[in-house]
Write a structure and sequence with these properties.
The chain has 235 residues and is of the alpha/beta class. The protein is built from eight helices and 13 strands. 41% of the residues lie in helices and 21% in strands.
């Protein structure tokens, strides 16, 4: 597996490259988003570790450019106190984030988790074996990891969006707290960051609701969490 590491601090690049190569990964170390975009054309990585605050570029904008053309998992590296940037990063393109200074073992575990999800998504699945969940005018194929509208058009979902929608569909009309959703979608490795779920809900609403500002499918239960207000048919 090939991991691209983008940071403007050479010391961080060296530490991360050594750590991941010791684990058997191939790495490319880059100082700028421009170098990353060139790499995507010639030797696309299986996962990207991207610093949010590069000296000459905005990491958010770099991630946004990549997401327009690729579903490669992106983990943002952020500094403490950058909560607004973390929210924007998740809303724009990121699949996960981790704060500096970080624990190398935790970062490696996060990377492995994202790569497992990405590999599963790309794995071929026999059509007759797939499980489909129908709700409103949508169909979520659990095995193929696709969301299709009534017009037959597929809507791209990030790993986080797919995981969250799958959880909500598993128990329609049940109210999930933010902590429950955070645990079920990101696991115990995730730092306490309730806004992660709020941002993913916002992104899902933009994709499946007729009017995201007046949602009818994913409803907010004030002071508690969220619920899917729809019947779900499995096939």
């Amino acid at each position: 597996m090939h991991i691209a590491i983008v940071d403007d601090e050479d010391s961080i690049l060296e530490v991360l490259s050594d750590a991941f190569e010791d684990e058997g990964y191939r790495t490319s170390t880059l100082n700028t988003g421009s170098e990353l975009l060139q790499l995507m054309l010639s030797d696309a990585p299986d996962l990207i570790l991207l610093d949010l605050k590069l000296k000459a570029e905005n990491g958010l904008r770099v991630a946004e450019q990549i997401r327009k053309h690729s579903e490669v998992p992106i983990i943002m590296l952020t500094g403490k106190g950058d909560e607004t940037d973390r929210i924007l990063g998740l809303e724009v393109a990121a699949d996960d984030y981790i704060m500096k200074p970080f624990n190398i073992r935790e970062l490696i575990a996060r990377v492995r988790a994202q790569l497992r999800r990405s590999t599963f998504k790309r794995s071929p699945v026999k059509q007759e074996d797939t499980q489909k969940l129908y709700f409103q005018n949508w169909c979520l194929d659990i095995d193929l990891r696709t969301l299709t509208g009534k017009d037959g058009q597929q809507v791209a979902l990030t790993f986080g969006e797919f995981s969250l929608l799958s959880v909500l569909l598993s128990s329609p009309n049940r109210v999930f707290s933010r902590n429950e959703l955070l645990d079920k979608t990101h696991g115990t490795l995730t730092e306490s960051f309730d806004r992660t779920i709020d941002v993913l809900i916002l992104r899902l609403r933009r994709k499946i609701e007729d009017n995201p500002k007046l949602p009818e499918i994913i409803l907010t239960e004030r002071g508690i969490g969220y619920r899917l207000a729809s019947n779900v048919i499995r096939s």
